[in-house]
Design a protein that fits this description.
Helix content is 49%, strand content 13%.
């Protein structure tokens, strides 16, 4: 029979005391490896309390650019009350004795990270089992929670809990260094429209971007333009969820945009030999893109989240369109009106954008309120069943074409992209060129190259 001590050891979560000590010893022996360790390990990666306290001390010293050696670390430990029993110095010497060289610190780091992964999986499994045994939630709720926790582990993030500002600052510095070293003109994903990119700084991770317009203004075309550019040039996978059009219809629209063959010809199939060559070239280009399409007309935010969690290197999600979506899988309560449902959906979309850390571009219908105004340009108050949509969205874009309402317009194909809300900068207006035969938008100065 195992002793009580053996049973206690068996109940311990996975960890490697030797690897933890070796990493700390490597830093004390050769402080030059500190930046490599800091870059890959956080304090909670250390399971043993004493090791965690020493690492937290070194972490803080590194952030303040202080000299790191056994003497300075000991002094810092004393100031924080970690050396109450005068055992810290002997333990630091023991760490240095265990690790005569820092040459293998990378291997020690990987061992610690693997043990951290196993601990998080064990903790998550325990939490999920507790939820099931409690019986307070539905199976779908437990499944959503399980998927969210597992996805967070895969992304290397804690699923919940408070984060020290020091960790956030390091992430911000990393992001600033990445942007400074990049030759990109904008921080976010390009829309393929330079003027719009400059106005909104591109499509940024964790943002909910709302693209709204009255029917016939071309919001699906705009979304497909953005999808096509991102799928071909970003190097990331892009997902389009269409609740209105079939996959085949969407593919025809993408081909028309790519090869500049009149969309009407593609619909009727009346193509010349030259048109066939253009279609073949466009199809080949699309085959090499990273565009994924889902045309499930009953999809919910939970469904989209579950599907996108499984997509590696995801860069953009596009949804067409918000008002056609169902609430999160559950039956609507009798007293729940459509405005409440849409508000719930928009909030869920924002949460999804944050969790997946990708931009979510969602299309939306507008009410008929603008039809009764002399100036028919949309306003935020025109958002249909707006509720929380205006609050949740980081960017709100409206499409407007004067030629749609005024047949005598000087330039019937001049389109306006109105930036009604912009958390990253100013609001305003961007003029675009609308090409109806190819159902595409382009920068105003764009000219088709022969």
């Amino acid at each position: 029979m195992p002793t009580e001590v053996e049973e206690l050891l068996l109940r311990q979560l996975p960890h490697s005391a030797t690897a933890e000590q070796s990493v700390l010893g490597a830093i004390l022996v050769d402080p030059r490896c500190t930046s490599e360790v800091i870059d890959k390990l956080r304090a909670d990666d250390f399971y043993i309390r004493q090791n965690r306290e020493i690492y937290e001390t070194i972490y803080t010293m590194f952030n303040y650019s202080r000299t790191i050696d056994p003497v300075t670390v000991l002094e810092e430990l004393k100031q924080h009350g970690y050396d109450q029993d005068d055992q810290a110095w002997s333990y630091l010497l023991q760490l240095m004795d265990i690790t005569p060289t820092a040459a293998n610190v990378g291997e020690y780091i990987e061992i610690i990270r693997d043990k951290t992964l196993l601990r998080r999986l064990a903790e998550t499994a325990g939490d999920i089992t507790a939820m099931v045994q409690a019986g307070a939630d539905t199976g779908q709720t437990v499944l959503d929670a399980a998927e969210q926790r597992i996805y967070a582990i895969r992304q290397g993030r804690a699923a919940r809990g408070l984060t020290p500002i020091s960790d956030v600052i390091i992430d911000v510095y990393d992001r600033l260094e990445e942007l400074a070293a990049s030759d990109r003109a904008i921080p976010g994903l390009s829309t393929g429209l330079k003027d719009l990119d400059r106005a909104i700084s591109g499509l940024n991770n964790s943002d909910l971007i709302l693209l709204a317009a009255r029917p016939g203004m071309g919001k699906t075309s705009m979304a497909l333009n953005i999808l096509l550019d991102a799928g071909k040039r970003s190097g990331k996978k892009v997902a389009f969820f269409s609740l209105e059009m079939s996959r085949e219809q969407l593919a025809l629209r993408l081909i028309s945009s790519e090869c500049f063959v009149d969309n009407q010809k593609l619909v009727t199939g009346k193509l010349s030999d030259q048109d066939w060559e253009s279609v073949a070239a466009a199809a080949d280009s699309l085959n090499r893109s990273t565009i994924y399409i889902d045309d499930d007309s009953s999809v919910t935010v939970a469904d989209i989240l579950a599907k996108c969690r499984r997509v590696e290197n995801l860069g953009l999600i596009v949804i067409d369109y918000l008002q056609l979506m169902q609430s999160s899988g559950k039956q609507s309560r009798g007293n729940e009106n459509r405005q409440q449902i849409v508000s719930d959906i928009s909030r869920s979309l924002k949460i999804m954008a944050k969790e997946l850390n990708v931009p979510v571009l969602c299309l939306s219908q507008l009410s008929r309120a603008n039809e009764s105004r002399q100036d028919k340009r949309p306003m935020l108050s025109d958002l249909r069943e707006s509720g929380a949509i205006e609050q949740d969205a980081d960017i709100v874009l409206f499409l407007y074409r004067d030629g749609y309402y005024n047949k005598d317009s000087d330039n019937p194909n001049l389109a306006e992209c109105i930036i009604a809300k912009n958390r990253h900068g100013e609001t305003g207006k961007v003029d675009l060129q609308w090409t109806p035969e190819f159902t595409t938008f382009s920068d105003l100065e764009w000219r088709r190259e022969e």
